[in-house]
Amino acid sequence: MVVGGGIAGLAVARALLAGGWDVQVRERAAAAPSTGASLGMWPHAVAALEQLGLRDLVRAGTVAASSGELLRPDGRRLVHLEPPGPARLVARPQLLAALAEGLPPGVLRWGAPALSAAELPAADVLVAADGVGSVVRRDVFGPASAPRPLGTVAVRGTADVPPAGMSETWGAGRMFGTTARLDGRTNVYACFRSALAAPAEAADPQELLRRVFAGWHAGVVETVEHLQPDSLDVRPLLDLRPLRSTVRGTTVLVGDAAHAMAPNLGRGACESLVDAVVLARHLVAAPDVATALRGYDRERRRPAARLVRASRLLNRVSTAEHLTGLRDGALALTGRVLAGRR
Ligand SMILES: Cc1cc2nc3c(=O)[nH]c(=O)nc-3n(C[C@H](O)[C@H](O)[C@H](O)COP(=O)(O)OP(=O)(O)OC[C@H]3O[C@@H](n4cnc5c(N)ncnc54)[C@H](O)[C@@H]3O)c2cc1C
């Protein structure tokens, strides 16, 4: 029984079905999303997609992550950015559609929210893939496993301008980033300290971005003007304190339910795919469920916890309000040293 038909839940279903398990996925949404921003897929996530049988998606449904620049608000360069190996970018709706494609009828139930862990039908394994606000985690792991606010807000969306390569601009308390989309437009993400925006401003995210990034270099200001209003998503960011275990009895956490992290390293969805592959490998190979879940926890929990900590740090540094001159000086120096080595 898998609760949540997002990236983690669908990937788990695919991997377990391929291993001969009977799977049911309960998803609270009535249907798959038709719009959504791009996700960076690091090389290990691309490998996981291939193991999940999605080689066609990688070949034809993604775009290569290019090199780019980390800039100051006036447009001067701080550091040249290189993608981590052969990384790809994929739009979330395309990724979800590919993961759901080919699932036998009846496996994925739309419009089926789990209201509590107790009301779920009995199963050999209960996989909590219901995201950062997981109901299953709350019920099975208790209130101490609740997510914590990062004190920042993220806005993402699509701009009708041709992509100019990967770029991030860091200022005081705020950052603005762009990557390419397969459809020839630009994927936009921005993050800023929560105190910079009143909650009511979330109703008009484009106007909010105009105000927060006023006076920044033309690449930012013009991209904000070309944002598609109906593509914009605003959300306060949360992450999870690393847990002592991702397993309790026959319940196991995967994806954001296990290790929600700040988006700054672009690793949450990547790790969800890896969770799925690893969990299925253990469940298929181990002599019993308890051994399999122990093996999964041993393999996945610590690496994911390290990423939660690193992402939290990067979220703070990229939206630092004070000592930004020192931060930028250190970044520029690091960039020069790295360029010298290259
Ligand atoms: C601004 C931003 C940018 C990001 N960029 C990247 C990136 O570039 N690369 C990357 O790897 N990651 C990125 N991420 C992280 C990524 O979006 C998440 O890590 C990923 O979506 C986690 O997938 P998931 O399936 O675990 O959780 P979710 O995507 O949250 O899916 C959970 C699913 O469970 C369903 N659900 C919830 N509760 C219930 C319930 N009670 N009953 C039934 N169904 C339920 C939800 O409807 C949803 O479909 C980014 C995140 C943000 C916020």
Derived structural class: alpha/beta
Number of helices: 11
CATH superfamily: FAD/NAD(P)-binding domain
Strands, count: 16
Mean pLDDT: 95
Anisotropy-based shape: globular
Domain module count: 1
Q: Architecture, CATH level 2?
A: 3-Layer(bba) Sandwich
CATH class annotation: Alpha Beta
Q: What percentage of residues falls in helices of 4 or more residues?
A: 25-40%
Strand order, sheet with most strands: 6-5-11-12-13-10-14
Which residues sit in consecutive blocks of at least 5 with pLDDT less than 50? Answer: none
- CATH T-level topology: FAD/NAD(P)-binding domain
Small molecules bound: flavin-adenine dinucleotide
- The share of residues in extended strands comes to 15-25%
State the major sheet. Answer: 7 strands, mixed
**Over all CA atoms, what is the radius of gyration?**
20 Å
- The SSE string, one letter per element, is EHEEHHEEEEHEEHEEEEHHEEEHHHH
List the helices and strands and how they pair.
Elements lengths: L1 E2 L3 H12 L6 E2 L11 E4 L1 H9 L3 H6 L2 E2 L3 E4 L5 E5 L6 E4 H9 L7 E2 L16 E3 L6 H7 L6 E12 L6 E5 L3 E7 L5 E8 L11 H8 L5 H8 L7 E7 L7 E2 L2 E3 L2 H4 L8 H18 L3 H30 L5 H18 L1
Parallel strand pairs: 1-2, 1-9, 2-8, 5-11, 9-16
Antiparallel strand pairs: 3-7, 4-7, 5-6, 10-13, 10-14, 11-12, 12-13, 15-16
Helix pairs in contact: 1-4, 1-9, 2-9, 9-10
Bound molecules: flavin-adenine dinucleotide.
